[in-house]
């Protein structure tokens, strides 16, 4: 099974390199300029990240179908908007072989050299903890051969260059500034780019590391520990009480028992070597700023 996983991932990595040209114009901007109505008026796309992500997914679906057909897979799209994953690749020859591919987008941070805003890598809630659960997931988690992030990194256009109030005609298409540009696509198993921090607010989402070079090389905090530790950490995340050297619960300022939400604390709790944690690159402000 490891050979099947490697072959699929290698092909997906090669395929991802083709996608930059597919979505980009001649100067590196996004080919999608806006929405068009029946009178052929074009409305500029908002820079809202959710809108950008959804349009990119729609733009890329034909290419994913092409990739699947060329490599002997069927594609199953997530039945509901909030289900995991975005795409399930199911082998035509052996339907027991399935790959979860989640399309994730994020933007480079202007004030920090080499850093992005980070990805959310899916929930560590019920379907992650209960590997046979069918809640909010296309197929049970345990049925997937591998869980992969198809990542898209881009740079946002300056807000001063975007005028969402303008309406243009087709012959003025070149006058519309692309809201995003300079794409980098990659494919990687999600555990390899994971951090030990949640990805967003109070939701049970796994967060990625943020240093772009480490993302592209798969140098997440679990690199030296392996997928087993990634699974166990995120299954237990926020569930175990923190205790002091005497075994007493450690309390928050509000009097609640602190939970283990860092990999260092978790490995100490499990009696493991914390030096195996791959170090996270600290963000540093751009000198020009």
From TrEMBL:
Pfam families: Endonuc-EcoRV
The entry's keywords: Endonuclease, Hydrolase, Nuclease
Domain of life: Bacteria
One annotated GO molecular function: endonuclease activity
CDD domains on file: EcoRV-like
InterPro entries: Restrct_endonuc_II_EcoRV
Designated name of the protein: EcoRV family type II restriction endonuclease
